[in-house]
Amino acid sequence: MTSDEPAIEPEARGPSPDRPDAEVIGVRHGMFGVTGTGDTSGYGRLIRTVGLPGGTPPPYGSYFDEVAEAIVDALGDDIFHAAIEKVVVFAGELTLHVHRDRILDVARALRDDPALRFELCLGVDGVHYPDDTDRELHASYHLLSITHNRRLRVEVSVPDADPHMPSLFSVYPTTDWHERETYDFFGIVFDGHPSLARILMPDDWHGHPQRKDYPLGGIPVEYKGARIPPPDQRRAYN
Predict the structure, then answer these.
(1) Closest C-alpha to 118, from 180, 182, 177, 70
(2) What is the number of other CB atoms lying within 10 angstroms of the CB of residue 189?
(3) Model confidence over 44-72: pLDDT tens digits?
(4) What's a Pfam family in this record (predicted)?
(5) Pairwise CA distance, residues 237 & 149, whole Å
(6) Which of 47, 128, 215, 229 is most buried as measured by Cβ atoms within 10 A of its Cβ?
(7) Gap between the Cα atoms of 167 and 165, Å rounded
(8) In this structure, how many other beta carbons lie within 10 angstroms of the beta carbon of residue 16?
């Protein structure tokens, strides 16, 4: 179907009304933000705002209010307001955004306070938001309270120019391999980690492959000590 009428540029799509996207950090053009490719699929004209959930005011619902009150009691009002940047309830999860200088104090309180008892850290995720100025790199910890059967996410943001934050290994030893993987793929430096080294990429690899500013192709791949035999000497399976 063709038309002689000029194409109308779609308006930038705002945050979904059922999401508390109070923090818009950028605008994405095209399906994956790729430009200059001569795209003819139609996705190249998509425009979408990039937003992060904003802070959620209390009451939070579920057991989230009990957890929030217990954290205030464990830390004290002054430390709580200095340590917690915002509290977010989104997609059925409670997330504490914690200042990196206070993450160890918060983690110890979450683990040791009888009303909290988040004894287990299930893993660490890294995220790269290039447009989130001075907060480009995020580390997200997933905590589980076996005692109370509750879950909690703790998120720490660091700038790309200074990607350092304290390691949680001394509080949650299970973060050992997860922090190494996050460092390997995203470049977040966990100060105090007993052995912060690459875990999947070769030791001499340059860059961090899961960052959004990393090249998507055309990267020469080399493995130390590896040799690819000529076609007539390769193993056959048929």
Answers:
(1) 70
(2) 16
(3) 677 888 888 889 999 999 999 999 999 99
(4) Complex1_30kDa
(5) 50
(6) 128
(7) 6
(8) 9
Q: What is the pTM of this model?
A: 0.79
Angle among Cα 117, 110, 169 to the nearest 5 degrees reads 105
The single residue listed with the structure tokens 């008892």 is 117
What is the rounded distance in angstroms from the CA atom of residue 44 to the CA atom of residue 69?
Answer: 47
Sign of CA dihedral 98, 99, 102, 104: positive
* Residues in a beta bridge with 49: 27
Could you say which of 3.30.460.80, 3.90.70.10, 3.90.1150.30, 3.40.640.10 is the CATH number of the domain covering 53-191?
Answer: 3.30.460.80
The helix or strand, by DSSP H or E, that contains position 183, with its residue range, turns out to be helix 175-186
Burial label for 188, CB within 10 Å (0-12, 13-18, 19+), is buried
Q: pLDDT tens digit string along 187-200?
A: 999 999 999 999 99
Give the integer Cα–Cα distance in Å for 104 and 170.
Answer: 9
What are the backbone angles phi and psi of residue 163, rounded to the nearest 5°?
Answer: -85, 40
Residue carrying the six token digits 């000590």: 225
